[in-house]
Amino acid sequence: MAAVMTIAAPNSLAAQDGVPGPDEDPYIWLEEARSDRALDWVRSENDRTLAHMEADPRFEQLKNEALAIYDSEDRIPFVSIRPDGLYNFWQDKANPKGLLRRTTLESYQSNDIAWETVLDVDALAAAEGKEWVYKGSTCLPPEQRMCMIALSDGGKDATIMREFDTATKQFIDGGFVLDSESQGSVQWLDKDTLLVSRDFGEGTLTDSEYPFTTRIWKRGTDVTDAPEIFRGESSDVWSGAGLLRDNKGVVHARTAFRGVSFHESINYVWHEGEWLELDMPKKANLAGIIDGQLLYSTDVDWEVGGQTFPADALVSVDLEEWKRDPNGAKKTLVWAPAERQTKQGISSTANSAFITILDNVVGKVLKFDFEGGKWVSTEVALPDNATVGVAAASDESDQIMFSVTDFLSPTTLYYTDGSGDPAVLKTSPAYFDAMGMEVEQHEATSKDGTKIPYFIVKPKGMTLDGSTATLLTGYGGFQVPRLPSYLGTTGKLWVEKGGAYVLANMRGGGEFGPMWHQSAIRENKQRTWDDFIAVAEDLVKRGFTTPDHLGIQGGSQGGLLVGTAFTQRPDLFDAAIVQIPLFDMLRYHLIGRGASWIGEYGDPRIPEQRAWIEGYSPYQKIVEGVDYPSPFLWASTADDRTHPAHARKGAAKLKELGQDYWYFEDMTGGHSGGVDNEQRAKLQALQMVYLMQRLMDDNNGG
Questions:
Q1: Domain end: 182, 215, 235, which one?
Q2: Domain check: are 466 and 615 in the same one?
Q3: Among 154, 334, 462, 524, which lies 20 to 30 A Cα-Cα from 417?
Q4: Using H for helix, E for strand and C for coil, what is the string for 236-254?
Q5: pLDDT at site 674
Q6: Catalytic residue (choose from 556, 596, 617, 636)
Q7: Is the dihedral of CA 646, 652, 656, 657 positive or negative?
Q8: In this predicted model, what pLDDT tens digit does every residue of 499-547 receive, in sequence order?
Q9: In contact, 584 and 604? CB cutoff 8 Å
Q10: Which of 84-98, 271-285, 318-332, 657-671 has the least mean pLDDT?
């Protein structure tokens, strides 16, 4: 699921406005994530699955191969650039929970980096008897010495936060501490003041279980006594206040937002003693400050001041003019997409803005400077026909790093200090033999005639007789693109062993801009599922594979994608890996924070919208008399984003109908599965054994 989403316990087990309740759904008890009954069911399912998968002679080899990649000491240690050095978070065999560490640029440029440990999460967890998972930090600019460290117990999205001094490498005795688990955020106003958006008790969470109030918290006081400075509404998805800062750490304004749906926000600025609503589209946001200009990014056409800025454009205003008149400042176009282009991200150094774009699913980076009253852009010199991105950028200087990757080429890190073109700084090792592999891009025709691109990674000279075991994956939601990237474990465990890998770029994702997403949400969500099925049919039509050798895999929204595919076209696939999915879409808004995604899928409580959802909800589409492709569903007990209930209920219903299936639940770890490399390797091996049994073996999985 995109962005910052979490899941809590179910809001209600009763029927609501026609939504199935206990009388209609016998497996609602599986929505209680940690009830004794539910966990007993999980252990029984895990025992069955592990006994079968681990008995396969390939399991240990696959696990060891995956673990060797995850623990590899020569993989690139990606960094963030701070005033006191380059910071990296590192996990390996000796440090499964991880080290927050730093080095100098000079050392990082060498082949033997000298690291200084800043925080040892394994040692902290052992000392406190917790399964701490590091979830990042929020630091006070410009020095970034004082930080609020976020820690999760077991991998859930909800965290506690503690003040930490990166110079002394110690938590501050008597410093800021938020010791109740919550979603939310903090921002530093100054060294003694935080803006805090958290769960403050009754009346402070939205219907989606996110914070909608922000308080200003002074050092030495109790956060429960901190005065509230902004309040949204309980019907919002999330709401909060923040700060508009430049790269020097100067605060230029207090801002706030109300997330009225997952994709829409009403934005405000504190102006002349009150919160002033900004005259901007709900599908737009403030995107930062560069060269004295405030940037806006819009996902829809924006008509303002006699001008029309197209969807996906980047727009600027003079910062000082905006501070005087937030809604009257003159708008200037910075960048607008050409056909088949879309903006992927915005980063900045001390003096320039960098926009990462996709051009027909190929990455480029454009550098922008405001000179002589206008924006001047140049394309950054990076390799063609690759996926590129900004890996790190400095607020204090023009230092910036770029990552470059594709399916078969190990990730390469480029660096420049702004004085010349980027040069190679580090390259990841090759984890599989790509010599016998090739990549092709094709298009499938969806049900309504739309052309849907996809990539296939396959053995060179592969015979097109349909015999190749093929794994098809995708996402297709929340404007999130799925792009070519080095296959790593998939290359080693699947393609190197003779399989083909396919990545589909369905509508609903972000591969071709906001409209590619907006054309396949809510009442049109079926288009995403149609696109995926069309790619599968095209693979068969071209002779790449046959249904007997075709498997599908996806997680979160991608898990819903796989669920819809194998229930709508069970004849088209012989394996389906349903990872941490959404699955019961008639109750998804009641299972924890599912209500936050109503903007993507619709509201099952409204009859018209329920009809859209009921047409594809996989849980309800599992019925008697259909031969499903023995799906493998897996989830995480600690996942407070999509909640394990979805996968559990799907498995339980398959079992009730006597269908062949497999279920596994990682009883630690959050939305992404395992919290350390050992767990991640185990999950990979389980899935690969399943795929090999289903798609490569003559006995079809036993």
A1: 182
A2: yes
A3: 334
A4: CCEEEEEEEECCCCCEEEE
A5: 55
A6: 556
A7: positive
A8: 999 999 999 999 999 999 999 999 999 999 999 999 999 999 999 999 9
A9: no
A10: 657-671
Q: Do 412 and 470 have their domain in common?
A: no
Distance between CA atoms of residues 250 and 273, nearest Å: 20
What's the pLDDT tens digit per position in 81-120?
A: 999 999 999 999 999 999 999 999 999 999 999 999 999 9
271 an active-site residue? no
The SS3 assignment for 139 reads: strand
Gap between the Cα atoms of 471 and 498, Å rounded = 11
| In a shared domain, residues 535 and 424 | no
Considering the domain architecture, whether residues 497 and 417 belong to the same structural domain is answered as: no
Of the residues 517, 549, 589, 671, only one is catalytic, namely 671
pTM for the model stands at 0.91
Residues 6+ apart with CB under 8 A from 460: 436, 437, 438
pLDDT one-digit tens code per residue, 183-203: 999 999 999 999 999 999 999
- Whether 387 and 445 map to the same domain: the answer is no
Range(s) of the domain holding residue 557 = 32-67+431-696
| Co-location of 687 and 568 in the same domain | yes
d(CA 370, CA 252): 19
Confirm whether 671 is a catalytic residue.
yes
Same domain, 424 and 563: no
- Using the structure block, give the residue that is written with the tokens 């020097």: 248
How many structural domains compose the chain? 3
- Cβ–Cβ under 8 Å, residues 124 and 112: no
> What percent of the chain lies above the pLDDT cut of 90?
91
Cβ atoms 577, 552 nearer than 8 A: yes
Which of 148, 182, 216 is a domain's end point?
A: 182
Name the band, by pLDDT with cuts 50, 70 and 90, for residue 18.
low
